[in-house]
Amino acid sequence: MALGIIILVGGGSSRMGSDKAVLDWNGRRAVDRLADLSRDLGAALAVTSGAASYGLPVAVENPPGGGPVAGLLAAAAMLRPTCDRALVLAVDAPTVTAADLAPLLAAPSPGACFEGLMLPLTADLSALPAEDGAGWAMQRLVDVAGLMRLPCPSGAQARLRGANSPAERAALLEALILAEGAQKRGAS
Q1: What is the pLDDT of residues 6-61, one digit of tens each?
Q2: Which residue range is the domain that position 113 belongs to?
Q3: What is the CATH number of the domain that holds 11?
Q4: Secondary structure in 3-state letters for the chain
Q5: How many domains in the chain?
Q6: pTM for this predicted structure
């Protein structure tokens, strides 16, 4: 199955106070970290869903202001010509790792999310509804698409949940700096 990545970037960032996509995470923007992860996962195409592209193809929700599900479905339409399955990531979770996502990527059709979290998720594009999804809660999309709910990988919940506030960002950033520092020391 050809994998496409959807990075949801359309939120208002009201609790964070600034655009989460461009926040610096140890020298790289959040959106760039997720785009790099997409390439590492072998994605055929990565798109953002929201008002800005950040250097990637962009899908704009229809109707405007329709919410994250409307944006996700607009991005899925962009993926359909080249991809069979989508991995949907939230830009506020830029410290997520390939290991964190492995259970989702290995999930059988039609896809999966983690228990207690609606994002990230994987879904076969054929399982997604044809409706525009305007005003839908992510839970409704998960139910309509018939996605499995998998146990959250041990120690990954904070990375998967992401940072919606400066305090959450500070904790994740500290852990990221420590982890990347340890990787650099181990590589030298």
Answers
A1: 999 976 555 555 678 999 999 999 999 999 999 999 999 999 998 788 999 999 88
A2: 3-187
A3: 3.90.550.10
A4: CCEEEEEECCCCCCCCCCCHHHCEECCEEHHHHHHHHHHHCCCCEEEEECCCCCCCCEECCCCCCCCHHHHHHHHHHHHCCCCCEEEEEECCCCCCCHHHHHHHHHCCCCEEEECCCCCCEEEEHHHCCCCCCCCCCHHHHHHHHCCEEECCCCCCHHHHHCCCCHHHHHHHHHHHHHHHHHHHHHHC
A5: 1
A6: 0.93
